[in-house]
Amino acid sequence: MNNAFDVGDLVKLKSGGPDMTIQSVSETSTSYSYWCQWFAGRKLERGNFSEASLESAENGES
Hints:
The chain has one domain (10-55). Helices cover 0% and strands 52% of the residues. The chain is built from no helices and 5 strands. It has strands at 10-13, 20-27, 32-40, 43-50, 54-56. It has a 5-stranded antiparallel beta sheet, with no helix packed on it.
């Protein structure tokens, strides 16, 4: 099983929101999840997201 994103990749939620940077990748036997970070104004935010909820934000790719 190969993950779709790597540390440092720029992603966004498929449902919208800010561009985020992949900080780390976690693997289970069936899927990947990604710790992402982004700025909300001047505050650094962080969250964990499933691979299915993310898409590439680089170069206009979807």
